[in-house]
Amino acid sequence: MPPLPNDATLLGKLTTIHSIAEHAIGCLLTAEYSYFLMQQGHHVWKEVLPLAVEEYKISKIQTVISEDVRAILHDLDGDMNGICEAIIRIIIKNHMSDKLLREKEADKV
What is the Rg, in whole angstroms, of the alpha carbon atoms belonging to the chain? Predict the structure, then answer.
């Protein structure tokens, strides 16, 4: 049996603060967007959540988040208070309901 790669565990790839932050931000953004969709008339959670996840995937927000997380981890070099504040700013900057509202306003014009 070949040895495991350095970045692997028996359960999968080794998690890093970068991957944990990226995943957490993605989960919060899709939950926020799901809630927003429900407020817009979609009332079935089982239908809304997959829509929100799909929108997250096709929106390319994940790439922006990955780059932002990489930058803050590099710039703040272990300052957990600063990292937490920066993660909140990333979430606020990228929340998906703003995108939907802008699209609706553009459709009215």
Answer: 17
Q: Whole-model pTM?
A: 0.73
Crossing angle of helices 96-108 and 45-58, rounded to 10°: 90
pLDDT by 10-residue block (mean), the chain, 109 residues: 52 72 92 88 83 88 92 89 93 82 64
